[in-house]
Amino acid sequence: MGNFRSILLEDQNATRALGLRLAKALKAGDVVCLQGDLGAGKTTLARSVIAAICDVDDAPSPTYTIIQTYETSDDIPLWHVDLYRIEESGELEQLGLEDAFDEAISLIEWPERLGAGVPENRLEVSLITPDDGLDTSRQARITGFGEWESRVDDI
Predict the structure, then answer these.
(1) What CATH number does residue 121 fall under?
(2) Do 99 and 7 form a contact (C-beta atoms < 8 A)?
(3) Range of 33's domain?
């Protein structure tokens, strides 16, 4: 099942703060699966990680490019991947994600599109929005699988 914790995110600033804490815990080979509905804050969270460890303040969303790559201050590649537009598993093979999973930090939006290709060692961050659509808060459920099980409390 994995080790998990839950954090209330009152607003976008709290989501960004979570991204900063996450950034401090990341290392080469880490895969972070960002889950949630459209508008839940996945890209906001990813951008705060990218800003913190890649010194890029205006990271574009990879919705249309699918992959945006960066270098951390420690020369570790960071891949920000948005699989929303992936429709068939054959399209995944062309992306080279397996290499990124081994040597880069990977932030994956819409990871359910990976199907059976989701890495065993991963951190899942699920951003859950209130049903009423009026509240700006989010619930972040952070679950570690594999080696991440012992690292969840680092975030």
Answers:
(1) 3.40.50.300
(2) no
(3) 3-154
In angstroms, the CA 104 to CA 68 distance is 12
Q: How far, CA to CA in Å, does 93 sit from each of 42, 99, 118?
A: 23, 11, 13
Whether the CB-CB separation of 44 and 129 falls below 8 Å is answered with no
Phi, psi for residue 67 in degrees, rounded to 5: -130, 135
What residue spans of 6-152 are helical by DSSP H? 12-25, 42-54, 89-93, 97-103
- 49-69 pLDDT, tens digit per residue, is 999 999 898 898 887 889 899
Side chain identity at residue 45, one-letter code? L
Arithmetic mean of pLDDT, 105-131: 91
Q: Considering the entire predicted model, what is its pTM?
A: 0.91
